[in-house]
Specification:
Pathway: Porphyrin-containing compound metabolism; heme O biosynthesis; heme O from protoheme: step 1/1. By secondary structure, the chain is mainly α. The chain has helices at 17-23, 26-42, 49-73, 75-80, 96-117, 120-140, 148-152, 154-157, 159-168, 173-196, 198-204, 209-212, 215-235, 244-266, 278-304. It is 71% helix and 0% strand. Helix 2 (26-42) packs antiparallel against helix 3, helix 2 runs parallel beside helix 15 (278-304) and helix 3 (49-73) packs parallel to helix 6.
Length: 312
């Protein structure tokens, strides 16, 4: 999941509504909302449509809260990196203490309201997700180890589990598989980004794999990760949340994903300036479509199942 900024045309010190929206990382939040909704709708059991909507809203707010806490703590890094230098805090439009207050307030609100609306198991998972992203990943892993995105990727993988728990009150194999799909997808997705943003991470002192081990090792890691990811993604087709439609999508998308990783692995450096990192950028963009179509297929299977058309 990408930490893209939501830019507004304001001058330093002039915070507007869009700047506070930007603190919540809305593009990241959109993926959180989608995967959480799929987890909720694929879960067995009934839930009132209003409660379902409110549950997903709470999960989205919790995801946004963790984004605000991330921006508060990472303001020093964001100032250095070109990709993030126009975010609200480094640009001076939002004060750090304001971002911290927004993050903490929304964290408490989202967890409590989700617990009251659904159950406390789902609320506990949301609370742990916020803690994991803001503390374990942002404050510890990101600046300490090149495996930061491998372990830290768990934070972005929890939303479908939370959605599932909102309906069922617990965890099951199916929700763990949805977690695993996003968890194993995150490293190749982010490492592809890191390949063409390596200088940003170097200047900021972030020990991404591209900085500590080099681009060639990073390409090998991307390729290696596609195989357990493909096995898990295709295997999910044969569980209660899968079916023929999902299987077709999984087989096609994973074949293309492995092929894309192979193209990255075998390309030579340096390329002509016009071609530099074109393969990585294309793979990074495709990885977003990859995850969207997998969860979209799971959603389609859930929608077809009541009609006797989804599943096996």
């Amino acid at each position: 999941m990408t930490d893209a900024s939501f830019e507004t045309q304001t001058t330093p010190g002039e915070a507007q509504f869009g700047d506070y929206v930007a603190l919540l990382k809305p593009r990241v939040m959109s993926l959180v909302v989608f995967t959480a909704a799929v987890g909720l709708l694929a879960a067995p059991g009934a839930i009132h449509p209003f409660v379902a909507f409110f549950a997903v809203l709470c999960i989205a707010i919790g995801g946004g809260a963790s984004g605000a806490l991330n921006m508060w703590y990472d303001a020093d890094i964001d100032r250095v990196m070109k990709r993030t230098s126009r975010r609200p805090i480094p640009s001076g439009r939002v004060a750090p203490e304001e971002a911290l207050a927004v993050g903490l307030t929304l964290s408490g609100f989202s967890v409590i309201m989700l617990g009251l609306a659904t159950n406390w198991a789902a609320a506990a998972l949301l609370a742990f997700t916020i803690f994991f992203y803001a503390v374990v990943y942002t404050m510890w892993l990101k600046r300490w180890t090149p495996q930061n995105i491998v372990i830290g990727g768990a934070a972005g993988a929890f939303p479908p589990m939370i959605g599932w728990a909102a309906v069922t009150g617990g965890i099951s194999l199916e929700s763990v598989l949805m977690f695993g799909l996003t968890f194993l997808w995150t490293p190749p997705h982010f490492w592809a980004l890191a390949l063409f943003m390596k200088s940003d991470y170097e200047e900021a002192g972030v020990p991404m794999l591209t900085v500590t081990h080099g681009r060639r090792a990073t390409r090998r890691h991307i390729f290696a990760y596609t195989f357990p990811l493909a096995a898990l993604a295709i295997g999910t087709a044969f569980t209660s949340i899968g079916g023929p439609l999902y299987l077709a999508v999984a087989v096609l998308m994973n074949a293309l994903f492995v092929k894309g990783a192979w193209d990255i692995l075998r390309r030579d450096e340096p390329l002509a300036e016009a071609d530099a990192y074109r393969v990585e950028k294309r793979y990074f963009t495709f990885s977003l479509l990859y995850l969207f179509l997998h969860f979209g297929a799971l959603l389609a299977e859930a929608a077809l199942r009541p009609w006797g058309l989804g599943g096996w």
